[in-house]
Design brief:
The chain is of the alpha/beta class. Helix content is about 30%, strand content about 30%. The chain has two domains: about 60 residues, Ribosomal Protein L25, Chain P; about 160 residues, Alpha/beta knot, CATH 3.40.1280.10. It binds S-adenosylmethionine.
């Protein structure tokens, strides 16, 4: 379950109204011992104390902190329609991605507005709970390639003409920060590609044209494993 806050000198945990509703749907009983996450590396054990429309509370029994490995796996992906974008976000969480940059490309079929991010965060929390990912990724919208801070990362552009992704396994394993850039359904625009080629290494996932979500899943799985996630 998702923990909103811990208070009362670390003795009580608070859960949101939607988590309280989730507890009801799952028929969890007062007094049950549960596991909670907060997306900041903490794993809580708590005993459920109250459930109401305004939220739920529990008595904190223990807290364990899982340290982050200090590496960063970033997925830069062109925006796309729901439910495709939902799948991308969910799988990125499962694969241990630290940051999802959603790019409103010229050729994106659906532009994402900042007011959609709440919905995306809720997908990320659900995915984190399911796979016990203790760190919630960062999520941001990028409107121009110039906004990417690419200076300290190995930037891999998924491109049919590139060298095979697996040929970069050693570079990925030894890099602290890895960014994978995936184009939109219609491909990147000419001027976008020109800018991307200035700081990215083109890499290929084979000769077949993969859907955006497949390209994200394949490349993030590979990088995540190489980075020891
Ligand atoms: N017609 C588009 C084009 O020619 O670029 C197809 C775009 S594809 C559906 C979406 C994105 O997934 C591409 O821009 C690319 O970044 C990535 N992608 C898909 N298949 C790939 C492959 N076999 N190798 C490398 N990247 C791939």
């Amino acid at each position: 379950f998702w923990i909103d806050s811990v208070e009362n000198e670390n003795k009580k945990v608070y859960l949101s109204p939607s988590e309280a509703n989730h507890l009801k749907v799952m028929r969890v009983k007062l007094g049950e011992i549960l596991t909670g996450l907060d997306g900041k590396g903490n794993i809580y054990r708590f005993q459920l104390e109250t459930i109401s429309k305004t939220g739920a509370t529990g008595n904190l029994l223990s807290r364990k902190h899982e340290y982050h490995d200090g590496k960063s796996l970033i997925i830069f992906v062109a925006s796309t329609k729901w439910p495709r974008i939902r799948l991308i976000i969910e799988k990125a969480v499962e694969l241990g991605v630290d940051r999802i940059e959603i790019f409103n490309s010229r050729y994106s079929v659906a532009k994402i507005l900042p007011n959609r991010l709440d919905k995306f965060y809720s997908v990320m929390r659900e995915a984190s709970k399911q796979c016990l990912n203790t760190y919630l990724p960062e999520l941001c919208i990028i409107d121009s390639i110039d906004q990417i801070d690419h200076s300290n990362s190995l930037n891999l552009l998924l491109d049919f003409t590139g060298s095979p992704l697996q040929s970069l396994s050693d570079s990925i394993a030894s890099s602290k920060n890895v960014r994978i850039l995936v184009g939109p359904e219609g491909g990147f625009a000419e001027n976008e590609l020109k800018k991307l080629h200035q700081f990215c290494l083109p890499v290929s996932l084979g000769k077949r044209i993969l859907r955006v979500e497949t390209a994200v899943i394949v490349s993030a799985s590979f990088a995540s494993l190489q980075m020891g996630r």
